[in-house]
Amino acid sequence: MQSFTDFPFHPSILQALSDEGYERPTPIQAQAIPKALAGHDVLGTAQTGTGKTAAFSLPILHLLNEERPHSDKGARTLILTPTRELALQVENSLKTYGRRLKLRSAVLVGGVPIQGQIKQLRRRPDIIVATPGRLLDLLRQDLLHLKRVSKFVLDEADRMLDMGFIGDVRKIAGMVPKQRQTLFFSATMPSAVEQLASTLLDSPVRIEVAPQSTVADNITQSVLFVERGNKRALLTEMLKESDVERALVFTRTKHRANRISRQLSERGISADAIHGNKTQQARQKALKKFDQGRVKVLVATDIVARGIDVDGISHVINYELPNDPESYVHRIGRTARAGASGQALSLCDVDEVIYLSEIEKLTRLPLTTVGDHPFHCDRTASLYGRIAKRSNGQNGEAKPKGPKFGRGRRRKGGNGTAKGSVRGRGAR
């Protein structure tokens, strides 16, 4: 099996990987790193949690370290991300793997005072990690330039599309030199993202390590049919189970995230909320408390479905099913990181049955029905059974009933990922 020592990385990078306990690359890393080191443009598609960040950050750190900096010390690498949280985590990865290299990085994101970022730019960073809006703001003020950029990375390109950033991305790409290496990574590849890639990359090496919109096989997926008015009580019961170590709960609205977090806290369950209406400082504080285990439950909107990377999330709970089935895939990908197993539980009311059907069509996996809970709704289950029967011509009641809320024993090596691979914290 391939090891990171098989790559011609600078010894300082290999030492940093060893210090972190990373021994073997994940499939996306094993395929993308050699091509990136060779200077090729790369178009990479892999499901969330497979190590895409390390797939581009490791070769970039090595190549930048090998280059002689130009006398004009403008940034040599630009990494665009769709969210503030992801930008911060990408920079954290760069600092982790490159801590023994003399390379500087800066993070440029909205939602925080701009003066601190201007101060970072005065230090002439080699790498800029940015969200599109704040980067354009600083460019318009002539506070930085991109004419020395030789490596251009788009991370989570499909999320860029979802958030309406494609126009900004095109504008920024037009400011980057045409003679460059472009690394383009995405969890899915819808036609609009494919079209964008065709305009930005030059004869790219295409890498796809898993079927699009698939779910890691070390995630146990279950659905609980419940009336909408009973969801709160059911959620409380679930979170009191002894095997729920750290839970991420998803809602569709910011208001509901706040309300559920408050209600859980009132019932003795430590919880916090994170969503787009919170300041960057408040969001980072909530994430830090969750990551450190000071709160057991983080209630979130889809802003963090691909924006956080926290180790040890034992359960992802969909308090409300998303109306976009691909969002479901990204939500539940927050558990079962770094080869561990995880549990994905979805609370489904009668109005969400159609969403459940669309999710199963996309993932091609039936969710296990958990029927032995005190709030089971026969009406919702029957409707689902009728829809399932129409969809596949089978008995809609054929799906097995799973355990109450529990999950299996945590294990290493799930989904073919070896112990010591770069997944989990800061290594998406």
In short, what is this structure?
It contains 15 helices and 14 strands. By secondary structure, it is of the alpha/beta class. The protein is globular, with a radius of gyration of 22 Å.
Features:
single chain, 428 residues, alpha/beta, seven-stranded parallel β-sheet, 14 strands, 37% helix, disordered C terminus
Structure, explained:
The chain has 15 helices and 14 strands. With 428 residues, the chain is of the alpha/beta class. It has a seven-stranded parallel β-sheet. Helix 2 (27-37) packs parallel to helix 3, helix 3 crosses helix 4 and helix 14 (353-363) crosses helix 15. The model is unreliable at 394-400, 407-419 and 424-428 (pLDDT under 50).
Distance between the termini: 21 Å
Number of helices: 15
β-strand amount: 5-15%
Mean pLDDT: 87
Based on helices, strands and strand pairing, what is the structural class? alpha/beta
